UniProtKB/TrEMBL annotation:
UniProt keyword Transport present: no
Tree of life domain: Bacteria
SMART domains named among the record's database cross-references: HTH_ARAC (SM00342)
Transmembrane regions: none
SUPFAM superfamilies tied to this protein: Homeodomain-like (SSF46689), RmlC-like cupins (SSF51182)
UniProt entry tagged with the keyword Acyltransferase: no
Protein name, as recorded: AraC family transcriptional regulator
HTH araC/xylS-type domain sequence ranges: 137-235
């Protein structure tokens, strides 16, 4: 079982032997030198120094390399990942200046020794945000950035230059959810982070995720989690103690 609590970062090399596996944690593969041929789910690519890849949990992937290579690999515990944000498909993106900066920070943490896990845990929300930015249509990105504000389907549809009816059908095909359900789940995900990581009141958290009343947040938790926000906080604090 994959039960580690912090992000594990390592320099890794790959051989010409093909390996196929999956694991219960996410994995971010950042190139340092050489190439890696990899298939993750339906996505196949030749990774080089210009391309990085995020592999989601439980995604079967096959990989090998026939040239000298080295990659920076982050194994990310599943509980740190949000399927709402990152989805269940691999994300490939170019190594731009933003990712070069992230790579530099991670390599610096590795040089500091075995205590890097905690520091990488602090860096990961930014890494996650960058991955989300790479894959999201404009309106879905807007939901993640403005979940604390009033959101209407009409406004979101206009961002994609669709009429409201077509947008709702398009959104369902893109995410498997209606726009309103997706917004609620994003708000729920953010509320869970605040309940785990802060001592803010339930009312304060409700307001910060775009809900006017504490009772609205309570109904949301009971619908999706079958517990109240207070019970969710107590359960998670007990797990960490």
């Amino acid at each position: 079982m994959d039960t580690f609590r912090d992000i594990i970062a390592e320099r890794r090399t790959y051989t010409a032997n093909k390996h196929t596996h999956s694991h219960g944690y996410g994995q971010l593969i950042i190139p340092l030198q050489g190439e890696l041929e990899i298939t993750a789910g339906p996505k196949s690519l030749m990774m080089n120094t210009e391309t990085l890849l995020y592999v989601p949990p439980s995604c079967e992937h096959t990989y090998h390399s026939v040239v000298r290579n080295e990659f920076l690999v982050l194994d990310i515990p599943h509980f740190m990942l949000s399927s709402i944000e990152l989805g269940d498909r691999g994300i490939a993106c170019p190594v731009n200046n933003q990712w070069k900066g992230i790579r530099y920070l991670i390599l610096n943490e590795l040089e500091r020794g075995p205590e890097h896990g905690a520091a990488l845990k602090e860096l990961f929300p930014y890494i996650s945000h960058c991955l989300v930015q790479e894959q999201m249509p404009k309106s879905i990105q807007y939901i993640h950035e403005h979940y604390d504000e009033p959101l209407t389907v009409q406004k979101l549809a206009e961002m994609e230059h669709y009429n409201r009816s077509y947008y709702s059908d398009w959104f369902l095909k893109e995410t498997g959810k209606t726009p309103s359900a997706y917004i609620q789940e994003v708000r729920l995900s953010k509320a869970k982070e605040l309940l785990r990581d802060t001592n803010l009141s339930i009312l304060n958290i409700a307001v910060q995720v775009g809900l006017e009343h504490q009772s609205s947040l309570t109904r949301l938790f009971q619908q999706y989690e079958r517990v109240t926000p207070s019970q969710f906080r107590k359960i998670n604090h007990a797990r960490l103690s």
